[in-house]
Amino acid sequence: MNTQNDPVLSDLRKRIAPSTTRYEMFAASLVADIESGKYPVGCMLPAEPELCSQYALSRHTVREGVRKLVEMGLVSRQRGIGTRVISKAVGPNDFTASTSLETLFSYIDGTWLKILGEKWLTADEKLANILDCKLGQSWLEVTTCRYQQNISQPLSHTVLYIAPGFAGILPHLGELNHPVYRLIEEHYGHKVRDLQLVVTALSIPPEVAAWLQCEPQSPGLHVVRRYRGTNDSYLSNSVSIYPQTRFDVSIRYQLNWSGS
Amino acid sequence: MNTQNDPVLSDLRKRIAPSTTRYEMFAASLVADIESGKYPVGCMLPAEPELCSQYALSRHTVREGVRKLVEMGLVSRQRGIGTRVISKAVGPNDFTASTSLETLFSYIDGTWLKILGEKWLTADEKLANILDCKLGQSWLEVTTCRYQQNISQPLSHTVLYIAPGFAGILPHLGELNHPVYRLIEEHYGHKVRDLQLVVTALSIPPEVAAWLQCEPQSPGLHVVRRYRGTNDSYLSNSVSIYPQTRFDVSIRYQLNWSGS
DNA sequence: AAGTGGTCTAGACCACCGA
DNA sequence: CGGTGGTCTAGACCACTTA
């Protein structure tokens, strides 16, 4: 079926919906069917040949439409298996913030860690909560301060929690410009796949303030970072305290798949 | 040119690079050329027909390859114009944080704004810096507190800066569950395309602490939010102060286009 | 072996931009 | 007007999964 050459349909498209293409209408129809429950979450979408004949579209157009649903996070496709509905479109994740790990940790340039202490410990309830790990799990705790070149005041007070198995990076922690995740990647080949940040405010405790050379009880940023690796296991975690004005967290979200 | 049927090439692909397709090799070649400076940032990529003949690929394959570069944020395409290099790929933006505006503002559920004061002002240097706008620009400043249902302590002290032209939302600001961006969308049809967040720590000033019912000089989160609309103009900005423990900022970055 | 999604070609019309 | 990227068709081979 070729409607591209059809002057009536072509004109109609121009007047009624100038920017709505066939694959977009098709995608919108699929989205509606998923929202309505015709294709419940977990079930398979009809295979491409069937969609082609159902909607009288070429396979390329069908694929373009389904690709849009993949981008929206509604379905996932597997070669040899099919296309599965994985979300109900209620709240599509239409805003994205993109960076590289390098950008995210650009503040580390020209800084190094001074190690204040280290010890092995097992997670009690409080720590398990902070690190989002199981009770009784074993971690190497390293207390540090991050210093900037040519500046006597440290940037932050950071407690690192390193997963057992990666303790070998300890001798290299003090090196310049080497965030923990990169040390783990260099020495063990484990790449970060998932980074979680939780930012809160706190009143800087006196013993930490002494290290940071700031007022005790003055306000600071409290940043928990959780690094998860390729196999979903935690590589390391860190709890950082930044005095006011020495650090900020900046994020920029942008709309992605244009309209609709 | 059809290499799909070529047993030699097919076998070679299987042995040497089992998962590398033609459009991926083509994309990798473009990336290399952009990184090397053959195509500097700001210049145009060759048009599709030329890429087709240069690489001996069909147009579909070329488009698939260029699409990958678009996803990586290296180039942007404009119909009628061409494909422009917009980034040097030095650090590919391989980590993304995805949410919806609804999720981002889920803390607004069950809260409303109490308006403490309002006035028109023009941006001096300090304000222009906070709002990232031009000097002398006119804004409607609305000072508010956000209250939660059944809780007497307010969640935050928020100063809104509303772009001239959207002042009509003022009577609706106090409504339940209505973030500013949604009011602007409902009343003026302008959608948010870009949201920037800057989080710092501060010592809560006494006059704000009185409203927030917290200790003067106690630590708090200082969050600047900038909402930009479809045409790159600012819709509104807000400066919020949250007492310690009443709010946190949580972000989750994930690796996206798998390998490499 | 049959069916799935992934890649690829060849050729076409379209909307948009700039000269 | 010619050139750009955007959409579309028809038909093909491929890798992968399941039975």
| Beta-strand share of residues of chain A | 25-35%
The total domain count of chain A is 2
- Largest interface, counted by CB within 8 Å of the partner chain's CB: A-B, 47 and 47 residues
Rg of Cα set of chain A: 26 Å
Secondary structure class of chain A reads alpha+beta
N-end to C-end Cα span of chain A: 27 Å
CATH homologous superfamily caption of the largest domain in chain A: Chorismate lyase-like
The level 1 CATH classification of the largest domain in chain A is: Alpha Beta
Features:
homodimer, 260 residues, alpha+beta, Arc Repressor Mutant, subunit A, Chorismate lyase, 2 domains, six-stranded antiparallel beta sheet, two-stranded antiparallel sheet, 8 helices, 10 strands, DNA-binding
List the helices and strands and how they pair.
The structure is a homodimer of 260-residue chains.
Chain A: H1 7-16, H2 22-36, H3 48-55, H4 59-72, E1 75-78, E2 82-85, E3 95-99, H5 101-104, E4 111-122, H6 125-131, E5 138-148, E6 154-162, H7 180-188, E7 192-203, H8 206-212, E8 219-229, E9 234-243, E10 249-255
Antiparallel strand pairs in A: 1-2, 3-10, 4-5, 5-6, 6-9, 7-8, 8-9
Helix pairs in contact in A: 2-4, 3-4
The structure holds a DNA duplex (19 and 19 nucleotides).
